[in-house]
Amino acid sequence: MSHHIVEVKELAHAYPDGTEALKGVSFRIGHGEAVALVGANGAGKSTLLMHLNGYLPTERGEVRIGDTTVTRETVALARRAVGMVFQDPDDQLFMPTVAEDVAFGPLNAGLPGDQVERRVAAALERVGMSHVRGRPPYRLSAGEKRAVAIATVLAMEPDILVMDEPSANLDPRARRRLINLLLSFEHTRIIATHDLEMVVEVCPRVIVLDGGRVVADGPTFELLDDEALMLAHGLERPHILRHSHPH
Amino acid sequence: MGVADWIDLGQMDELGRMDTPVHRIDARAKASVTLAFIVVVMSFPRYEVSALVPFLFYPVALVSLGRIPCRHIARKILVAAPFALAVGAFNPFFDRQPHGALGVPGGWLSFASILLRFLLTVWAALALVACTGMNRLGAGLGRLGVPRVFVVQLLFLYRYLFVVSDEGGKMLRSVEMRSEKGRPLRLRAYGPLLGTLLLRSMDRAERVYRAMAARGFEGEIRELERPSFHFEDTLFVVGWLTFFIAARVWNLADGLGLLLTRILA
Question: Please, are residues A94 and B212 in contact by the beta-carbon 8 Å criterion?
């Protein structure tokens, strides 16, 4: 049984105020794939992400993680399989020290102390943040916070990583580090972002959302290089492609 | 300096992580002794002042052995002081009956007693948090048998103080930037401001909760280390309880005074 596959079928969601954020979204992401989820503000990206680990209950359609349909009963399983990195690291880091924050997930999973410790050390090592383990998270720089937020999720050893705007608020060097880190993961990765230049480097596949629907799903170079498609959905053809495909 | 700096919650966390003999005492021991302390201090009759003085020993001991900077605690006591002042401020006007050998009006005595009790209890509670850390304290309370719902409420209340003070700080800054220097904000502007603060804090709290839920939070905050109760912890509890009982039964301040006069005479 593999948990690495994410399948969404005809997923629809309306908020209590009547806003239809998702109007029938379908896609399938295979083991180890890195997929970017792009779209203008309000396209439904965040709503979609909140369904992937069962934070929003599925009303219409289906979300499958591996062989399991996400329902109220299987939500714990989905949360173990799907590691979610949120947009604002300040929301994600709430314990007094970095190490305690990274240990939060494994402790909730009921792991014994020595295993928790091993996972904390490994996760911090993985993102190059072992040196800040005793510091309070709010004292870190934006780049360090982002790396630690990723470590908190890695410590849960998920099969799938879901990230919301991972490169937001990062300086160029921190962003470069993040890109290298993302490239080094072998997890299935779903990255919602406006940073199309990063998408070109990290994700071979792109799903374009607009108005709660998937309007395009295919190879990154093809879709992002399609100026008409990009402009029609509030996006822009990334510079990096302009240079590599001169007309 | 903003509200957040004044309350300076972050420093409280840092103090809680220090390693001193007081910090090493089990959270359960410190929590129960502090609770006993508060109960005993509150149990004195309303005009009592001198018998309360020896109780200063407990918070002073916690703070000095725990190497907690006095300024830090003093600031927080000042934040809460208006409440105690408001409670006792009218006593001197209503109760003019003279009391004791010096014939001090009862109202002044009870006012002083309220202030002293306030100082003692708030000081002890702050010292407890500063030399235990909120999370360890919460876990300790949980192991003492306090219902989990209350413990989690307490921890969230504390955690969300950061959230609210953060949001409040940001809003104040944007208000300052758009208002004329030196001109106070019109009273009417505070209504929507507070409303926005509430909504923003709720949104933020929701996001924090979402992040916790994503990492498998199911209503229980677990700790990395599960400390066991040592001999020192027992000694701490027994020692302080003995002192509290002695100080409650005998007026140690008077006793000390009598002893000194007898020695000198």
Answer: yes
